[in-house]
Amino acid sequence: MGRSVLVTGGNRGIGRAIAQTFKDAGDQVAVTYRSGEPPAGFLGVPCDVTDAAQVDAAFSTVEAEHGPVEVLVANAGITRDTLVLRMSEEDWDSVIQTNLTGSFRVVKRAAKGMLRLRRGRIIFISSVVGLLGSAGQVNYAASKSGLVGMARSLARELGSRSITANVVAPGFVETEMTAELPDAKKAEYLGAIPLGRYASSDEVAAAVEWLASERAGYITGAVIPVDGGLGMGH
Question: Which of 14, 80, 124, 210 suits 225 as a labelling partner, its CA being 20 to 30 A distant?
Answer without folding.
Answer: 80
